[in-house]
């Protein structure tokens, strides 16, 4: 069973005939074609290096650094339970109060204000204004100092 081709329209007179498929897809002859860029031409001519016989890359394991971190408990004006780094015992600290900068500043301030008849020495009698030194009750090692200023 043959199929009928669609009717060919008649072209008006004076126009050239339509080209065939082969003539339409054929590249035209250009007298001076534009050359490709130099880098492109070189890469097109060089073959890719073979990767078949190359050894796999050597990957070294990452270096791990172990670091011991000691979290020091904040020491305040009250006794605390802590592990002594000298004797490695868990102890409740023993406290000693000593005059630091704050009692001296308050003494000088009271003296300037006019409390010169012994009242300026009151800051040295009050433990709440002194620095606190924490000791281990077993080995008597200093564990830390809490300073007011």
Tell me what the structure shows:
Belongs to the CDIP1/LITAF family. GO terms for molecular function: zinc ion binding. The protein is 17% helix and 14% strand. The chain has 149 residues and is an alpha+beta fold. It has a domain of 66 residues. The radius of gyration is 49 Å and the shape is elongated. The N and C termini lie far apart (111 Å).
Task: Map the helices and strands.
Blueprint: H1 21-25, H2 38-45, E1 81-83, E2 90-92, E3 94-98, H3 101-113, E4 131-135, E5 142-146
Beta content comes to: 5-15%
Percent range of helical residues: 10-25%
Mean model confidence by pLDDT: 78
The structural class is: alpha+beta
Strand element count: 5
Task: Please work out how many helical segments DSSP would assign.
Answer: 3
Distance between the termini: 111 Å
Stretches where pLDDT is under 50 for at least 5 consecutive residues are: none
Shape descriptor reads elongated
Q: Tell me about the biggest sheet?
A: 3 strands, antiparallel
Rg (C-alpha, Å): 49 Å
Strand order of the largest sheet: 3-4-5
What is the succession of H and E elements? HHEEEHEE
Observed structural traits:
149 residues, two-stranded antiparallel ribbon
Summarize this, please?
The protein is built from three helices and five strands, in the order ααβββαββ.
């Amino acid at each position: 069973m043959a199929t009928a081709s669609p009717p060919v329209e008649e072209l008006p007179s004076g126009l050239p005939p339509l080209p065939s498929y082969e003539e339409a897809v054929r590249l035209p002859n250009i007298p001076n074609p534009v050359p490709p860029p130099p880098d492109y031409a070189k890469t097109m001519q060089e073959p890719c290096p073979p990767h078949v016989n190359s050894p796999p890359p050597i990957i070294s394991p990452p270096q791990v650094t172990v670091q011991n971190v000691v979290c020091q408990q904040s020491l305040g004006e009250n006794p605390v339970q802590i592990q002594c780094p000298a004797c490695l015992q868990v102890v409740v600290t023993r406290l000693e109060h000593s005059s630091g900068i704050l009692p001296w500043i308050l003494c000088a301030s009271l003296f300037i204000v006019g409390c010169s008849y012994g009242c300026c020495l009151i800051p040295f009698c009050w433990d709440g204004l002194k620095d606190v030194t924490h000791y281990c009750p077993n080995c008597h090692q200093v564990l830390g100092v809490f300073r007011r200023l």
